[in-house]
Amino acid sequence: MIIEQPALWLRWLYPRATWRMDKHVKAVYLTFDDGPIPEATPFILKTLAEHGVKATFFMVGDNVRKYPDIYNKVVAAGHRIGNHTFNHIGGFRHTIKTYSDNAQKANELLHTDLFRPPHGWMRLDQYFWLGRSYRIVMWDLVTRDYSKWMTAEDVLNNVKRYTRNGSIITFHDSLKSIDKLHYALPEAIKWLKAEGYEFKVFD
Question: Staple 122 to which of 47, 56, 91, 118, CB 3.0 to 4.6 Å?
Fold first, then answer.
């Protein structure tokens, strides 16, 4: 559970970040990290469209540079875009200037006010600096669809076990996750709908 739902101390470390939305509203916020890529994003878009669901895509700027047509399809479908840096860099390995410059380089393509740090970590100086320009969105539930130790059924079970009102649910728009998403994503959406959850994106 420490992995699937972040511990309280981690939420306290970044108190102004958004970890969970209104716990009194039966709604969830689907998010997808690391895309866009041709091997995964089209399937995700197709699945979301089939179920009438909108989501937020935290995109890597260099992927947008390489696949602008896929980025445009995500935008045209009415999904929300978030910044996930230009090169998917980890905050702890870079200075505040390098990190913020990398995020700004991505935002020249993304044009968004949402930011999610790769790996869910950044140094506090980076957090405070980027927090001046972006709403920093973390997660309430990470499905672990990227893990080679997880099956598609495990990913679905994580959604069933940990989803609650206001959950920000993180999937990955990536090569590591796509095989599992073929089963887990549509089944997760069906289950969430059956449980009465509404699907929302960030204002």
Answer: 91
